[in-house]
Amino acid sequence: MAVTPPAYRPDLTIPADLHEELARLHGYDRIPERVPSAGHVGGRLPADAALRTARRALSAAGWTELLTLPFVAAEDVDALRLPDADRRRELIELVNPLSKEETALRTTMLPGMLKAVRRNVARQLTDVAVFEVGKVFLTPTADEPGAATGPGEDGFALPAEPLIGGLVACGRFRQDRVGEPGRDADVYDLLGAVDALRSALGRAPVDTRATDEAPYHPGRAARLSLAGVDVGVVGELHPRVIDALELPARTLAGELRLDRLCARGIQPPPLATPSPLPAVRVDVAVIVDEGVAAADVADAVRAGAGAHLAAAWLFDEFRGHQVGQGNKSLAYRLRLESAERQLTDDDAAAAIDGVERVVAQRLGGSLRR
Hints:
By secondary structure, the chain is an alpha+beta fold. The protein has helices at 15-26, 46-60, 74-78, 110-122, 187-201, 239-245, 258-261, 294-305, 345-363; strands spanning 64-65, 71-72, 92-93, 104-105, 128-135, 163-170, 172-174, 183-184, 207-210, 216-226, 229-237, 252-257, 280-289, 309-318, 327-336, 366-367. A hairpin with a 2-residue loop joins strand 10 (216-226) and strand 11. The N and C termini lie far apart (97 Å).
């Protein structure tokens, strides 16, 4: 269609002006409503769907979600007694803070969450189990860079913004019931929350290693990893940190790297066909030095048990003169299975010999006969 605008309509200069005239003359009310399509199928990104699943898993496990402001004061971080070289001490100051106290972006989820717990406890709500999902703001590094540098010569490097899941618990985790006494929260409740989260995301069980890092109590905290990748830490706060922040005794806390846990979305584990033949169960007790980590012992036991190992779990820990001064005994129950043939006592003996050999090679330990 060739169109020549009349002289009294100098506003009609581009094709869009003519399209508008056609719609006006035809009648806007006569044009059907239709959402234009961009050619893309809607839906959440895999990481977003995984994050939503993680939230639901923690809520289903009995944790209540918090939402706190992402600002901290320098005194809040000092109260955590972090080492001087800790990256979380490098606060990023705000140009125009909302308050004169909280003048920096948070580098850890703990200050805001612990303040919320303290407020609840001050109002007689002493049994608390909460979590929060949010970003922290850290100075960029080569391994964890921030957003792209700003334009021009005066550009600046924006902070790294890892997505963190914070956990805090104190008081009674389970209330008294008829015929079933309640109990206080402990570090295993935090590990249980981590296990519920990783199971909902389809991840393998996490490895736990004892840690003495701040702000946690030495010997009552664990560093978590998944396939060799660090995913966080949980544990009991140090008594001095608890006193400085006026928290209940034995308050527990932890932080998880949700960006790493949720990066690949939800990945249901492959289903294993159960063996139609009866399993063989074997108990082995390993004697090692007191300083050997239980996780290392478990790895050695699994490696030595052989290809028929279906499951292994720790069921007893013993110390005494029977195992020698400075030693400990860890007892594991092994389940051996095979889909091709019925396993025999010879297979059980071979698994025990394999465990004994690997434990001796890796850890310098022995079996408790």
